[in-house]
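I'm curious: can you give me some protein's one-letter sequence along with its backbone structure tokens because I've never seen that pairing?
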Amino acid sequence: MFVKTISESDVYLFAGITGDFNPAHINEEYARESVFKTRIAHGMLTASLISTVLGTKLPGPGTIYLSQDTKFLKPVLIGDTIAAIVKIVDLNKEKNKVKLETICINQKNETVLEGFALVKAPK
């Protein structure tokens, strides 16, 4: 598990890295008129927290992402604390591949993201 509170800086840095300057993420005036009534974090910023778990904890350093199936269920707001959780679903020792359930929950214990990852585990 990896836990992070999403800050305004995180959103701006992610926009700069990816080039995704969608006003839903960076313009409060614009976002006030949106369905969410405030700015939201990039969905892929939230999804990237899964990568943190995979590359540092389970399976750990040296893990290589092969695929990710992701559903974005609820918006993540600036200030939300997100826990990224992965659970092993299947292990193919011959091919050194691991299928994992991937979930992100907020501080209200609401699931904001769910999916599955396939990775090549380190030897």
